[in-house]
TrEMBL record:
This is Arylsulfatase. It comes from Allotamlana fucoidanivorans. SUPFAM superfamilies: Alkaline phosphatase-like. Residues 43-375 form the Sulfatase N-terminal domain. It holds the Pfam family Sulfatase. Keywords: Calcium, Hydrolase, Metal-binding. Belongs to the sulfatase family.
């Protein structure tokens, strides 16, 4: 039998077809690989997350007391999403949704640490594929600075085990409640912050340290593509900021809202402190934008700014800042005030300056968006997100729309479920009839029209009942 002779040309073609036909499947902790793209052309991505900042706390959304000129400038020169939603109405699950692309009906973390069936905290795990892990596949250096909040057990959920090359901040929730913490984590090392005392509020305010570390990360990594998840803790309780930051808000004739320290070591005057905290956050963002310009990388950097859930500070019965804008509710609600978040995307010469989109999107869309921007398909084909990259790039005709959005939340007022489908919004408390709202006509959700539209209410109720998988630690039963 004669040996089979194959020419080099045929071998080359066969090999090329084989390579093109292969689909790479990511395995946890596998060696990062780079897709067939010019890495230098991939955008840097900075995702800035405020903590408990309300939709109406920013000037571009109508705020007239708190000064936010730098974030407003991002909006003026970027794109504002008017229909963007958080992952949840509290910190932990919202961040899990953001990182994994799965809504709270499917996410590993569906509630804050103490609200599990067993009382033991649940973290993201080895089966979860994070945005950072996806971007590592595309050759990115990845970092998180600030509040992670997905590693209560200090184990598998640690940022350095979830695709991040660098971490500086809080692994857990409770330490993140204080702005003068005694310690902080840098990667896997617990660092003592000398001179810090959270009881007396002495030492280094963590907001400034976060910004300092973000500056260092950008300086160190700006010559190659990087992803920075900058998860600030401002303006989450506790309310405290150095006195010099408050000067611009003193002597304005504002009524004083007395804040009483307890677990949260609040400063005395709530209104002045809250406004000063938000303005400090704004100034630091302005400094980071200027840094990008000075380094010559601003035009190749996408900045996204948003908040993890609705506000907690402003009193909805006696509003001063009107932090939730026209919306009903606040943090821990599934009404718009709890989950409808401010959103700005800024990318000079790529995103059209001064543009606005009413595309309905949510935190679980960030992972597929980041993947599309760098030329990847998401590794997990079970994610709930839809990429909004076409909208960012002005290709609205090719923008895929959500069939609907889903949330669930289960603390003392729960369980609560909500669905948005086009302009229809349904909210369901466990022991009450479904509520239905037409957001085009009633964005404040003041007029429940479920009885007038029973068929639509029935459709959305069915979506609620079929949009989740069971989770032993997060059953939809009454909590006390």
């Amino acid at each position: 039998m004669k040996p089979l002779k194959i020419t080099c040309k045929i071998l080359f073609v066969a090999l090329a077809i084989s390579i093109l036909g292969c689909k790479t499947k990511q395995v946890k902790n596998q060696t990062a690989f780079v897709e067939n793209q010019n890495v230098a052309q991939k955008p840097n991505i900075i995702f800035i997350l405020a903590d408990d900042l309300g939709y109406g706390d920013l000037g571009f959304n109508g705020q007239d007391k708190i000064k936010t000129p730098n974030i407003d400038k991002l909006a003026e020169n970027g794109m504002v999403f008017t229909n963007h939603y958080t992952g949840s109405s509290v910190c932990g699950p919202s961040r899990a949704v953001l990182m994994t692309g799965k809504h709270t009906g499917h996410a590993t973390v569906r509630g804050n640490p103490r609200w599990t069936a067993s009382g033991k905290p649940v973290d993201i795990n080895n089966e979860d594929v994070t945005v950072a892990e996806e971007l590592k596949r595309a050759g990115y250096t990845t970092g998180i600075i600030g509040k992670w909040g997905l590693a209560e057990n200090l184990d598998k959920g640690l940022p350095n085990k979830q695709g991040f090359d660098y971490f500086y901040g809080f692994n857990q929730h409770s330490p993140a409640h204080h702005y003068y913490p005694e310690y902080i984590y840098e990667n896997d090392k617990k660092l003592t912050l000398e001179g810090n005392n959270h009881q007396t509020k002495e030492g280094q305010h963590i907001q400034y340290l976060f910004t300092e570390k973000a500056t260092e990360f950008i300086n160190k990594n700006h010559q190659n593509p990087f992803f920075l998840y900058l998860a600030y803790t401002i303006p989450h309780f506790e309310l405290t900021i150095p006195e010099e930051e408050k000067e611009q808000y003193k002597n304005l004739g504002w009524p004083k809202r007395q804040m009483n320290p307890g677990h949260y070591r609040h400063d005395e005057d709530g209104h002045v402190t809250y406004a000063a905290m938000v303005s400090t956050l704004d100034r630091h963002i302005g400094d980071l934008v200027q840094q990008l310009k000075d380094l010559g990388i601003a035009k190749n950097t996408l900045i996204v700014f948003t908040s993890d859930n609705g506000h907690e500070y402003d009193n909805v019965k006696d509003e001063f800042f009107n932090s939730n804008g026209d919306f009903q509710g606040r943090k821990r609600d599934l009404y718009e005030g709890g989950i409808h978040t401010p959103f700005v995307a800024y990318w000079p010469n790529t995103i059209k300056a001064g543009s606005t989109s009413n595309h309905i999107s949510a935190f679980w869309d960030f992972l597929p968006t980041a993947c599309e921007l760098v030329g990847l398909e998401p590794s997990d084909d079970q994610i709930d997100g839809v990429s909004y990259a076409p909208t960012l790039l002005g290709d609205v005709e090719n923008q895929t729309q959500h069939h609907y959005l889903y949330w669930e939340f289960n603390e003392s007022k729960g369980p609560i479920q909500a669905v948005r489908q086009n302009h229809w919004k349904a909210v369901k408390y466990h022991d009450k009839p479904i509520e239905l709202y037409n957001l085009n006509e009633d964005v404040s959700e003041m007029n429940n029209i479920a009885e007038q539209h029973p068929k639509k209410a029935e459709v959305l109720l069915k979506l609620m009942n079929t949009s989740r998988t069971e989770h032993a630690e997060f059953p939809l039963v009454k909590r006390h």
